[in-house]
Each structure stands twice: as structure tokens, then as C-alpha cells.
């Protein structure tokens, strides 16, 4: 069990540390991977389809350790996995990247993330939630139709991914905002940590919503959706179209979340 936190986290916490939100103006876009414009498309990213997304707000960064731990300290949010007794040993190697105030929270499940947005909504005048898949991809693409918001190649020092493949200096997670923001003003939409969505998982886009809403009503015990790739992943998993399904209670050192709001 890892109880140590950074010095700032050990100090008395404010009642709420609200993530900075960015207004994302609505519009239409092509969701999914189109083999005619992008290499490496996977079956679960198809068929590419037009979606109309309404205006919404999204957190500028992934939810940080400091932000999440305020909720934990009130008793409203479960502890991250790394604070539990008999937590997996791989957390210990992360050092400051695990416990630093400005690093993304990891070791949280989708229900943990939902507990956070419900708590935050109660503390403020806004109703927060997890992003839908459509909102997330719309924001990640930020008006582009390339594999990444900066082009079709991963380039160097654009994101945090596995090893030296992205040319970044980080072995694990990086402090949020370590790389350039995308054209919509968002950080780390590619890499750093995988992010939980509101949607349930299906392995294709057949009959997917085209109004920007979350996909609901999947089979019983359905998995959740993770987007964005992570420090643990190779570049192809950081593409805007890339998506993965995991059990809702999945927790590990490369999974976190960001938040959204419609008001």
C-alpha cells in the first residue's frame, strides 16, 4: 500500500479543486477510421460515420492526483488502487509520477470516475459527467481528419507513449500539460493515460448514436470504453480513432479520466 503523497497533497486540502473546463463548440465530424485517409484502421473503429456533436465543456487536462484526492479525503470517492493494501507492486516503481499533485490520477475504475463527477456536481452549480465517445473523439480531432491532431505521424515530443517511440522524456505518466495543447485548447488527448468514457463497449460502430450521445444498452456486464492511449502504449494506440474495451472495474497504472459538462 502506498500512502505517501507529495508535500502539497499532505497539506490541508480545499473543499473542491475544480478542473479547468474548455468550451467545445459543437459541429459535425466523421467519427471512426476511414482507410482511405488513414493507415492502421482496426475493425472496432469502423464503419466511419458522421456524427453531430452539440456544444459541451471538457476538462483542459486529465483529472489530477490532487483533484481526485480531495474527493477521496471527503470519503465520497474510493481510494485509487495504489493506496489499497496489497496493491500491485508495479505502482511502486512510478515514484513521483504516481503521487505528484499535477500528474494524472491512475488506478481508478469507471465507477470510481463516476463517483468523482457525481461528487464534483454536488459541490458546484454544474452537472459534471464523463465524456461520450463521440465528444471525446470530436475534441481529440479538434477539426482535423488525420491520425493525430498534429498530423499522420507521431513525430517527436508531441505526446507521452511507450519507450522512446514518441521522443518524450518520461518513463511513466507525465505532469498534465507537458506537451502542446491541441487546436481546441486541450492537453494530453493523445497519450499519457487512457481515459474512461460514459459509453458501454461494442466492438464496432454499427447502430452507434449519431447525435453525440453515449452508447447505452449494451449486453449485461458490458465493458467500458477507454480512449486516448497511454504512456504504456505504442503510437498506433494514440490515434484519435483508437478505442479499447475493458471491464468497468479495470484499474491499472495507465488508466485515468477527464470530465465533461453540458452546462
Automatic annotation (TrEMBL):
Pfam family, one: FGE-sulfatase
Molecular function terms, GO-annotated: formylglycine-generating oxidase activity
Organism the protein comes from: Thiothrix fructosivorans
InterPro entries recorded: CTDL_fold (IPR016187), Sulfatase_Mod_Factor_Kinase (IPR051043), SUMF_dom (IPR005532), SUMF_sf (IPR042095)
Protein known as: Formylglycine-generating enzyme family protein
Chain positions covered by the region annotation Disordered: 1-20
Domain Sulfatase-modifying factor enzyme-like positions: 18-260
Compositional bias annotation for Low complexity: 9-20
Highest taxon listed in the record's lineage: Bacteria
Amino acid at each position: 500500500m502506498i500512502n505517501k503523497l507529495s508535500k502539497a497533497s499532505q497539506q490541508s486540502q480545499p473543499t473542491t479543486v475544480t478542473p479547468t473546463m474548455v468550451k467545445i463548440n459543437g459541429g459535425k465530424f466523421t467519427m471512426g477510421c476511414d482507410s482511405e485517409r488513414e493507415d492502421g484502421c482496426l475493425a472496432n473503429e469502423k464503419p466511419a460515420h458522421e456524427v453531430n456533436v452539440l456544444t459541451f465543456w471538457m476538462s483542459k487536462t486529465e483529472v489530477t492526483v490532487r483533484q481526485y484526492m480531495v474527493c477521496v479525503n471527503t470519503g465520497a470517492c474510493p481510494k485509487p488502487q495504489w493506496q489499497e493494501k496489497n496493491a500491485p507492486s508495479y505502482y511502486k516503481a512510478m515514484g513521483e509520477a504516481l503521487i505528484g499533485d499535477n500528474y494524472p490520477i491512475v488506478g481508478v475504475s469507471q465507477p470510481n470516475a463516476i463517483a468523482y463527477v457525481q461528487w464534483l456536481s454536488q459541490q458546484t452549480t454544474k452537472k459534471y459527467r464523463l465524456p461520450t465517445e463521440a465528444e471525446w473523439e470530436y475534441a481529440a480531432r479538434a477539426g482535423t481528419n488525420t491520425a493525430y491532431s498534429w498530423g499522420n505521424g507521431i513525430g517527436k515530443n508531441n505526446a507521452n507513449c511507450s519507450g522512446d517511440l514518441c521522443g518524450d522524456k518520461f518513463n511513466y505518466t507525465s505532469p498534465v500539460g507537458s506537451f502542446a495543447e491541441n487546436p481546441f485548447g486541450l492537453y494530453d488527448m493523445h497519450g499519457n493515460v487512457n481515459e474512461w468514457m460514459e459509453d458501454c463497449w461494442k466492438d464496432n460502430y454499427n447502430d452507434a448514436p449519431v447525435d453525440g450521445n453515449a452508447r447505452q444498452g449494451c449486453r449485461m456486464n458490458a465493458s467500458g470504453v477507454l480512449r486516448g492511449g497511454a504512456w504504456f502504449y505504442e503510437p498506433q494506440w494514440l490515434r484519435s480513432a483508437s478505442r479499447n474495451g475493458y471491464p468497468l472495474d479495470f484499474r491499472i497504472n495507465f488508466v485515468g479520466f477527464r470530465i465533461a459538462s453540458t452546462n
